[in-house]
Fold this protein.
Amino acid sequence: MADLSSTRGLLVTLALVIALCMAIPGGSTAAAESGPAPTDTIPVGTVITGANWQRYSRFMPAGMQAIFAGDHFWRMPPDVQIEVGPAIPIALPSRYLENTATYAKQVTLTHLPEGGYVPAGYVAGIPFPQPDKDPALAPYKIFYDAYYHYAPRLQRSFSCNYVADSYGNFTQSETADSIYSQLMHLSDAGFPQTVPDSGGYFLVKYYQQISPEQGKYTTSLDLAYPDVTRLDDIYMYLPSARRPLRMSEVSRCSPLPGGDYTWEESNNGPPSLPQEYKITYTGTKRMLVLAHADPKAFESCGTAASIPSDYFYPGDKGVVPWSRPALGKWELREVYVIEMSRLPAYASGYCYSRRVIYVDKETLYPLTIDLYDSAGGLYKLWLGLQTPIRVPDTGAALGVNGATELLIVNFKDKHLTVATTAHPCFNTDCDAQYLDISRYASPEGLSKIAQ
């Protein structure tokens, strides 16, 4: 019995010593160096810096962790601060929810011989309101919820694009007019579910360069069909040729001139031809997101060599021009996490071996993407810093061309693209000309450029 009592006494003493070491600043344990053990939340008011980021890394996508770690070329500004605020709800438009209640029950998934799934019976609203109830089909249902996330009939912005390279050069590469036209599956007040004269297109993305002068009027046009198994039509108008050129399928993986943005990310995450992918669902998590940026940050572009310095840290050689606290507080939002990789029959020659998409559970909007190269290494971080703006007569919403700063960090090529939007608008808040389908949402419109 005496030996047992002595043993218990030693164990108690040892536990007290370990506890003291963990509690005393400068103690020799790892916990003393890195701070408290990870928790399932981040208290409001927390400031994340380069010194304490590891405590909160579980709430970050892999690309954001890599920037903080600095073990790739790109790293955070040395004085970076990320302030954490409360999670702010983003309500979906009422008509979108009404359409969900009316039509969701008729939507099904059809398995194709190649191995993927495609939806049948979709009309409007959320196709699968409770996507994770069926574990076997959850990854595909989440994907299509994100693919058909709410979008207004028209989204337009003046886009100011910057690039940074491995030599420390940071410059405005171009300005452009960016117009997204959704023509089917609509849930907007004042518009039918299918717009007359839609040309049979679901979503059209029009991107016209304004500056520099030597590239003025260069225009890209991506036309997506309602049949998800059908490849988009992509055209490029070159002023020197004075006619549009039809682009090949491989152009989807090619970056647009001067940047790291490809058409495969142009729908804010979900790529084309989803039936060619194996999709897995890895669960839900809380993730740090900047979803309520200060709208004033999107009132104008920056200078020729920097984005607005009041809202962003300056970019430098290997340093990402990250958001300052003035842009807005970050919040923890619940997300679905899905991973996509091409089925073996379609994998050869494709741009990415794997894509991880973080889909907001409330809005079903893809917030962040991690992209991996053919060898499985981290290739790019795609990150949107945004705020909801009001759709006329409909409600507030996030939008591809809304108040957004899109950051694409290319780890593999030591390159970086920042696309900021200025004066974004939705629907009838935009100039009426942008609702002209024949001009901005059809191949016919390319022949009217520079007239």
Notes: Residues 1-36 have pLDDT under 50 and may be disordered. Helices lie at 2-23, 30-34, 62-69, 94-103, 138-147, 344-347, 437-440. Residues 154-448 form a domain with the outer membrane lipoprotein receptor (LolB), chain A fold (CATH 2.50.20.10).
